[in-house]
Automatic annotation (TrEMBL):
It catalyses: D-threo-isocitrate + NADP(+) = 2-oxoglutarate + CO2 + NADPH. It comes from Natronospira elongata. Residues 8-339 form the Isopropylmalate dehydrogenase-like domain. Catalyzes the oxidative decarboxylation of isocitrate to 2-oxoglutarate and carbon dioxide with the concomitant reduction of NADP(+). One of its GO terms (molecular function) is isocitrate dehydrogenase (NAD+) activity. This is Isocitrate dehydrogenase [NADP]. Belongs to the isocitrate and isopropylmalate dehydrogenases family. It is an enzyme of class 1 (oxidoreductase). Homodimer. Keywords: Glyoxylate bypass, Magnesium, Manganese, Metal-binding, NADP, Oxidoreductase, Tricarboxylic acid cycle.
């Protein structure tokens, strides 16, 4: 799509810190003149409390299905009971089969122990234990089914290799636990090997998930593209985002056929909600991915440059602030305003 033509996307603020970081992100996108218009929808906690059991009212579904692109703040899901995750419902209902989570160190601006880290996690987004097939066999015995299908394995493996090729990446590492789950993870690994054979220009390797996660934490620079089933991919991406300095830095794209949802990696952070403390960077980077998806790569680059200049100036939210290293500790909205002031500048 041509960059000049504004596209309307659905916008869901989400819960907890969601409204604050959404406000900050919209402020930056508007100041940058991004070719996008927002159509707000309400989903999440407020809807559950209103009696909408899925957390997504029919009107919101209509808006999301109409625009086919959603920028979403994090949503609170109760632990160990209560309603089903709305994030899972959205991903499954919209057929968003690939969750793409780029993760790189921003050294020297945000110094890390691993300046060479620059990887993309491709997480299968619809199956695995996230299929939500759970049973209570007796009052004392519970069961969760792990669903892994060949079509989904093929689709996500091919997506990972195509992404690697398109982005000039050299290697795809599949992580699974097929020494234990020989049938389900075994299928994921086997299909990976079959698909890898179609991409001789890209190195393919496999790690068992436990040592793979340990290596990611210790030597993230050895990875390029990581492919994983749903649950492992979720855990890996929080580990990866935290290595770069804060879970608040991670953005993600949920991709389907002609439909996509963009969000931060992190959750609704109820511990800091409403305090103007949250780092909006994860959602901002996700919004930049959305602009690229919509064909407005130029504005995405301009926003990312202004964001980098702001961090370079030592203007940091609390999660990144380091005494003696940062210059100024700012809140969510002030951070966004500083990014707006830096639009047009290059790091
Ligand atoms: P969380 O990511 O919300 O918070 C973990 C820690 O990181 C907290 O200390 C929090 O303050 C901090 N943090 C998170 N985002 C931050 C940011 N932008 N800036 C600064 N600090 C940040 O994880 P959690 O506490 O396990 O989950 C809270 C809720 O979010 C749960 O209901 C969970 O289900 C939900 N959740 C939603 C999504 C999503 O919507 N995609 C993803 C993960 C978790």
């Amino acid at each position: 799509r041509p960059a000049a033509q504004a596209t309307t996307v659905a916008l869901a603020e989400g819960d907890g810190i969601g409204p604050e970081i959404t406000q900050a992100v919209v402020k930056v996108l508007e100041a940058a003149g991004a070719a996008v218009k927002f159509d707000p929808v309400t989903v999440g906690e407020a809807c559950y409390l209103d009696g909408v059991s899925s957390g997504i009212p029919e009107s919101a579904w209509e808006t999301i299905r109409q625009h086919r692109v959603l920028l979403k703040g994090p949503i609170t899901t109760p632990q160990g009971g209560g309603y089903k995750s709305l994030n899972v419902t959205l991903r499954k209902s919209l057929g968003l089969f690939a969750n793409v989570r780029p993760c790189r160190a921003w050294d020297p601006v945000l110094p890390t122990r691993h300046p060479d880290m620059d990887l993309i996690i491709v997480r299968e987004n619809e199956e695995d234990t996230y299929a939500g097939i759970e049973h209570r066999q007796t009052t004392e015995v519970t069961q969760c089914l792990k669903l892994i299908s060949r079509p989904a394995c093929e689709r996500i493996a091919r997506y990972a290799f195509e992404l690697a090729r398109a982005q000039g990446r050299k290697k795809v590492t599949c992580m699974s636990k097929d020494n234990i789950m020989k049938i389900t993870d075994g299928l994921f690994h086997r299909v990976f090997k079959e698909v890898a054979a179609e991409y001789p220009d890209i190195e393919a390797e496999h790690c068992i998930i436990d040592i793979g996660t340990a290596l990611l934490a210790d030597q993230p620079g050895r990875f390029d593209v990581i492919l994983a089933p749903n649950l492992y991919g979720d855990v890996l991406s929080d580990v990866a985002a935290q290595i770069t300095g804060s879970v608040g830095l991670g953005g993600s794209a949920n991709i389907g056929e002609g439909c996509a949802m963009f969000e931060a990696v992190h959750g609704s952070a109820p511990d800091i909600a409403g305090k103007d403390m949250a780092n909006p960077s994860g959602m901002l980077l996700a919004a930049c991915e959305m602009l690229r998806y919509l064909g407005d790569a130029q504005t995405a680059a301009q926003i990312q440059d202004a964001w980098m200049v702001t961090l370079e100036e030592g203007v940091h939210t609390g999660d990144l602030y380091k005494e003696g290293k940062s210059r100024e500790k700012v809140g969510t909205q002030a951070f966004a305003e500083r990014i707006c002031e830096n639009l047009g500048r290059k790091p």
